[in-house]
Amino acid sequence: MSNILEVKNVVKQYGDYTALNSVSLQVPKGSIYGLLGPNGAGKTSLIRIINQITMPDSGEIILDGEKLAPNHVQYIGYMPEERGLYKTMKVGEQALYLAQLKGMSHAQAKKQLKYWFEKFEIEGWWDKKIQELSKGMAQKIQFIVTILHEPKLLILDEPFSGFDPVNANLIKDEIIELNKKGTSIIFSTHRMESVEEMCDYIALIHKSNKLIEGKLEDVKRNHRTHKFQVGILTNNVEGLMYDLTQKFTVASTDFKSLNDDLKLEIDLGTSTSNELLHVLTKNGQVTHFSENIPSVNDIFIQTVSNI
Amino acid sequence: MSLLSLIIKREFIAKVRNKSFIVMTFLSPLLIVGMSFFIGYLANMNKGEVTKIAIHDAVGTLKPDFKNTKEIVYVDLSAMPLKLAKETSSKNYEGLIYIPKVADQKELINKVEYISDESPSMEFIMEMEDVIDNQLTKNNLNALGFDSDKIEKAKTKASIHLLKFSGEDTIKGINEMKIAIGGAFGYLIMMFIIIYGNFVMRSVIEEKTSRIIEIIISSVKPYQLMMGKIIGNSLAGILQFTIWAIVGGVLIFTATSFFGMQAGAQGSVDPAVMHAAQGELGATFQSYIKEFFNLPLATLVISFVIYFIGGYFLYSSLYAAIGAAVDSETDSQQFLLPIIMPLMLGVYVGIFTVVNDPHGTVATVFSMIPLTSPIVMLMRIPFGVPWWQLALSIGLLFGTFLGVVWFASKIYRVGILMYGKKPTWKELYKWLKY
């Protein structure tokens, strides 16, 4: 699979401060890509460079096989973290204007807008000013103007901050639908748990450096702990514990369960899960058996603390 | 449609549709014309009032020399005793001129008194002193054996005929007319820069506070946005000025013809006198008109357009940079001062030095410095400016304009993405290097 976006050794400095220290990324075509990292890591600096708002000091950006050029703005849809619209301008005119700035013709933009206004059932808003709309309503408009020109690459900076849960879900569904139609999507956020379920690929950025990049499953596999959570009903706790501690490291844990069972976290060490199951079934009735999959947050914290 | 023209169109429409813009455009000519007529009316009302001044002349020689005018009527109280005259005057009249009895009339030179509660105007004091001086001079002349009446008749009143070397007639007060015309153009540029520069700044701040700026500049270059803003706002401004000129012109025309008719109806002045006055006035007026068309009008108008564009772009790009650097209008004050200063300087230098010496060093230098040249040079042009000076000044203006736009767009580019705190001068300098 080819890449929609390649970032190659991008460096950006603001005075003495290095915002991006030779960062490279590969965003595969058709993926949902999570650009993750705490505030101030350099995510927004990178996104602004991709959007040609600022220029990198060195390095290059390849968009869909071509070196990034001014006319590429029409292929990118960008919703910045700091978003807003002209408060005193009418919704329709404003959306038309922004679409035309992205290179659409007036007629084309109008047709597209009609489609989205109908889809979101907001046809009546065309002649309203933004200042007359509620915050949630304005957010819908904001989303429409971002995707109106059917970008190949959609970049959403802190996508769900400021959206109420209902709108956030609506937007989420739209994003997934767009993705299914072939749009590549980059989420940039510091709230890693909020996008984890949606992303195929992630990159972790910390203090101007990229730490990890890859397919979400691969990243998780590389950071697996080989720990299992186990629930078991047994009359012979002592025997069970004796057998377990022969081969495994055992700790007590807690999770939600409908049974009054013994809850354990077991580190496989060099053994396999089948060996563990064998010991367990010998000593009682297994009610729960699952691998501890690290969250992106865990992986991030673990990676940062290892530096 | 190109991006720049899209931006210009939006800025223009956003400005023109603004309610306060519409109100300002149509209401201010009405207000200004209305105000000036109101003030004129008030001034006229005051003129009709007659001031009564009493005279107590113990000798009786000076009294006839105080002649009644439209504004002042003299009342003779010489018959009353001084004390009573004073009392009467303080109750009924503005003041009392007291001419005491003296042994020798020469003593009157410092013996005449004027008694009043309100201090008299300089003009009136000089009038009174003239009357005394005339009388005493006459006395002196007679005492020396001259016939004062003959001397009075022998006095002449010369009038110098003003010409140019080319042989054309010129008129007195032409310098005042020239400075008035040049000054009007210069002042217009200054007003336009301050008003529309502020609009540009406000529009930048609005984009910043509404947070739409990042969306816009992900589609267009900040430089394009800035230029579009400046041009769009200036077009709105030109439209407004045009409307003002038309509406103002129509209003003044209708108002003057209306008031003129009224004045004519009330007029009870001797037609012959009026005709004579009109003839004289007409001649002067005609020579003014002639002189006006002798001015380098084409140069003036073309230069006005050039300096207008250069000056406005120069300053409004600075206004845009300031708007980008701050988060609210209140924060902009410290940065605005250095912009307003050269504008003010231009106007004052223009008014105080160009009149006295249009081609002196000060006026010449200030008509070269780009920040003041749009104002000062326009004031100088009616007096005739050598071509090379004009060319140099315009060259400097546009050179600086390009430099300033570059500088301003750098600040603008960084500033629009900076939120939160007000930057210092040092930080602005740092932004130039980003």
UniProtKB/TrEMBL annotation, chain A:
PROSITE patterns: ABC_TRANSPORTER_1, ABC_TRANSPORTER_2
UniProt entry keywords in alphabetical sequence: ATP-binding, Nodulation, Nucleotide-binding, Transport
Domain ABC transporter as annotated: residue spans: 5-232
Pfam families documented for this protein: ABC_tran, DrrA1-3_C
Recorded superkingdom: Bacteria
Statement: the UniProt record of this protein carries the keyword Nucleotide-binding: yes
Xref: InterPro entries: AAA+_ATPase, ABC_transporter-like_ATP-bd, ABC_transporter-like_CS, ABC_transporter_ATP-binding, DrrA1/2-like_C, P-loop_NTPase
Annotated GO MF terms: ATP binding; ATP hydrolysis activity
Family in the record: Belongs to the ABC transporter superfamily.
Protein name: ABC transporter ATP-binding protein
Organism: Flavobacterium humi
Automatic annotation (TrEMBL), chain B:
Claim: Ion transport is one of the keywords in the record: no
Predominant subcellular localization, coarse grouping: membrane
Entry GO terms, CC: membrane
Subcellular location: Membrane
Residue stretches making up the ABC-2 type transporter transmembrane domain: 19-409
TM regions (residue ranges): 21-43, 179-200, 238-259, 295-315, 335-355, 362-381, 387-408
GO molecular function: ABC-type transporter activity
Topology relative to the membrane: Multi-pass membrane protein
Transmembrane keyword on record: yes
Gene3D superfamilies: Periplasmic binding protein-like II (3.40.190.10)
Keyword terms of this UniProt record: Membrane, Transmembrane, Transmembrane helix
Name by which UniProt lists this protein: ABC transporter permease
